[in-house]
Amino acid sequence: HAKLIKQNGLIKHLVFHTYDRACANQLQQFLGLFKSMLTSTFSNPWVFLKTPTTTGSEADDMQDAVLPSFDDTKERIPKELAARSGTESALSRWL
């Protein structure tokens, strides 16, 4: 394939153009996600002050780690947000 690309300028142009376009698309998607993350973080920064969700024994046993199911993840999200709101309460008392 490399020999064909070197010999034919049109193929070389098309390959590099497609690569550049794919990189530009990925950049735009990344920037969009990054902007959304920053907007979310700064709209309610207390929620993003995260405490560890795993205990020491769970963290030590990462070799057997598997991804949780979709239902487990949906169930965990409200618990995570509730745990993070405890940090907000503590900071409000200090301030």
Q: What is the CA–CA distance across the termini?
A: 65 Å
How many whole angstroms does the radius of gyration measure? 23 Å
Estimate what percentage of residues fall within beta strands.
under 5%
Secondary-structure-based class equals mainly alpha
**Average pLDDT rating:** 79
Uncertain segments of ≥5 residues (pLDDT<50)? none
Helical percentage: over 70%
Query: Number of DSSP helices?
Result: 4
Specify the overall morphology: elongated
Compressed to H and E, one letter per element, the order equals: HHHH
Describe the structure.
The chain is mainly α and 95 residues long. It contains four helices and no strands. The longest helix is centred in the N-terminal third of the chain and has 35 residues, at 9-43. The radius of gyration is 23 Å and the shape is elongated. It starts with a helix and ends with a helix.
Offer a concise description of the structure.
With 95 residues, this protein is an all-alpha fold. The protein is 75% helix and 0% strand.
